[in-house]
Amino acid sequence: MRLKKILMISAMLLTGSLMGMAHAAPDQINIAYVKSPFNLQNIVMKQNQLLEKEFQKDGIKINWVSINSGAQQAQAMAAGSLDVSAVMNTASLLMANGAGNKVYVATGVARPTQVFAIVGQPGKQMKIEDLKGKKVAGPKGTALHQILVAALKSKGMTINDVEFLQMDPGKAQAALLGKHVDAALLAAGLIIKANQAGAKTIVTADGFVNPLLVMAVSEKFAKENPALLQRIVKVHRQTTQWISDNYEKAITMGAKEEGVSFDDAKKLAQWSHYFDVITEQDMQSLKLDQDFLLENGMMQNKVNTDQLVLPMARQ
């Protein structure tokens, strides 16, 4: 009887030990580096090695992974190769959750209504209705894709009325300037460079979509490492404050990283509307975005948007 009791206690201790191991701090954090569309917090955070300094004493390595597409970021989270995205658009976040891949909002980043645009070929000024039957290149499952659908809808059209070609924004810009496509979905510096090359903006997000960029986290990392996530959010918010206190220095860093002039970088920063705390208005935007995505077949299943925003994001 005594031996049986000893064995039971040993088993309980072993189980507790294994549970502790399962939730032990990781030796590295995989975080998406997303510099476009002029994500100044992410640029400053990486270049100043702020997360590396925060976790150095813990022996935790910060592994930056360059993934611009929100859809691809969500896929990487589902595969376990990405823990946090410094910047993800909420359209991608909603679509991921609608497909059963749980991704949460950890804090806010930007509300860049003027940083996303549909741009036409160099030449005459195109209108939305001119896109019918034309080739349009851009990243699928993103805020840019959402803007295209919304703009077409405003003129009684759908995505089926254009020949939509899945393409990263950089390649879409090259295809546009090479006159291989009629229009491209571009962001930030790519818009400015395309405009300088004679391409004309057809519409921006203004009046069609209220794009919201957030820091996103996988369900696994959020559940297993809440304290580490809180520290990542803390560093992000400190970075936003540093940018405010050192504005010209931050703009200079962003201009160099994006390959644009100081004046253009300043314009992009002004367009971005950086922020930290998710507001009630942002929560309503999430709901409206989901309605739009569902109505236009861009999202599979409805989810509870309130549950997608972690408490730390609203504090």
Give a written overview of the molecule.
- It is a single chain.
- By secondary structure, the protein is of the alpha/beta class.
- Helix content is 47%, strand content 18%.
- Helix 6 (143-154) links the parallel strand 6 (135-138) and strand 7.
- The chain is globular, with a radius of gyration of 22 Å.
- Residues 1-22 have low confidence and may be disordered.
- Residues 1-24 form the signal peptide.
- This is NrtA/SsuA/CpmA family ABC transporter substrate-binding protein.
- Residues 55-248 form the SsuA/THI5-like domain.
- It comes from Candidatus Aphodousia faecigallinarum.
Could you list some keywords that capture this structure?
single chain, 315 residues, alpha/beta, five-stranded mixed β-sheet, 13 helices, globular, disordered N terminus
Shape call: globular
* Secondary structure tally, helices: 13
- Count every beta strand, where a strand is a DSSP E run of 2 or more residues: 10
Strand order of the largest sheet: 2-1-3-10-4
| Pattern of helices and strands | HEHHEHEHEEEHEHEHEEHHHHH
Structural class: alpha/beta
Radius of gyration: 22 Å
Regions with little confidence, pLDDT below 50 for 5+ residues: 1-22
Q: Please give the share of residues in helix.
A: 40-55%
The residue-averaged pLDDT reads 89
Specify the biggest β-sheet: 5 strands, mixed
Strand content: 15-25%
Span between N and C termini? 54 Å
